[in-house]
Amino acid sequence: MVMTQEPGDSGTPEHPRSASTRRWLLPLLVCCLLAGGYLFYSHQAQSQSGKQDKLKAQPPTPVAATAARKGDIGVWLSGLGTVTSLSTVTVKSRVDGQLMAVRYREGQAVAKGDLLALIDPRPFQVQLTQAEGQMARDREQLNNARLDLARYKQLWKEDSIPKQQYDTQEALVRQLEGSVKVDQGQIDNARLQLTYSRITAPVSGRVGLRQVDPGNIVHASDANGLVVITQMQPISVLFPIPEDNLPQVLARIRTGAHLRVDAYDREQKLKLATGTLLTVDNQIDPATGTVKLKALFPNNGNELFPNQFVNASLLVETRRNVVIVPAVAIQRGPQGTFVYVVKADRTVALRPVGLGVTQGGDIEVASGLQPGEQVVVDGAERLREGSKVAVKEANGNGGAKREQGQKRDGRHGLKP
Q1: Which residues contact 85 (CB under 8 A, 6 or more apart)?
Q2: Mean per-residue pLDDT for 9-19?
Q3: Domains, the chain, ranges and CATH?
């Protein structure tokens, strides 16, 4: 008997145990996955709970904090400037002669008109004597010619002399009058040369180093001159500011305001002098994108010296009743600028803030903070959101840093 096999039939009958195995294997796998997930999440929860317990168990972080306050803060524009004298004069001789004496000390402060040096006056005195003698001779000749003219006039009226003789005498009188005027000019010139032999200070200022020693022959054509006088009081400072800030400065000038300018040393720690803005240059430097400003300083104590480099700071305006915190309280991160605010439960909260201008060790907080809120000024590098803190006294490290910043008296007024 031949048996035929149907299509799809393997010819081997399915075992009953294999089917039953497949039925319970799938539920078992699902149970294992559920159990593994339960164990994983339980472990994570226990780990997180352990971290929180550990965080709670940690001692509070010592920090220094200060309260945000309301106050006034200045908007300053700074630039590296050069001290420039309003007047620098090279004193030269206006006549040729021997330098007889020097009447000043190097570095001395002199006033306008003070005697500085003497040039041998004897040649000029001789010229004056000669001119005066010539003048006396010509004047007497003129007087005699005038008397003759009066006689000739009377004789001409009587028709005793010809008209030509009278006219000739009249011309002689006019000629002698011209000679007397020439003599007077020579006398004035001789007196002027004699005056030039006494060299006086044309301006008030500080005398520099002596260029010529007594005994030398000086000439009016000498290039170096005798000495240089530099005006010290008042004195000016030239410094640049960015062209973007020029409209703000011009707006203040148009109101008639006298803008304050402070001059500091190179390290921007010591304030040298205080003055006022005098004027603004008439063009912007295209190479640097800046415009030059000129400030005037009384310089009564000679704090500023010509050609000295100083850091000039211009006070453009003063912002009133703004929120101010020490600059050391500001932290920066990927999320921007922020501060750590100390809450009532002695934990800290990370607070994003918007900043305004900076003045010395203080900075304006434009948004994100209220007056009176405590901000961390020292120890912020060890903090994170929710950390417990132990606040130090107000005169701790943060207070010291703030006082150190305030000594600089505000010279960085540009917005960050």
Answers
A1: 205, 230, 231, 232, 235, 236, 306
A2: 49
A3: 69-78+239-406 (2.40.420.20), 87-119+199-230 (2.40.50.100), 121-196 (1.10.287)
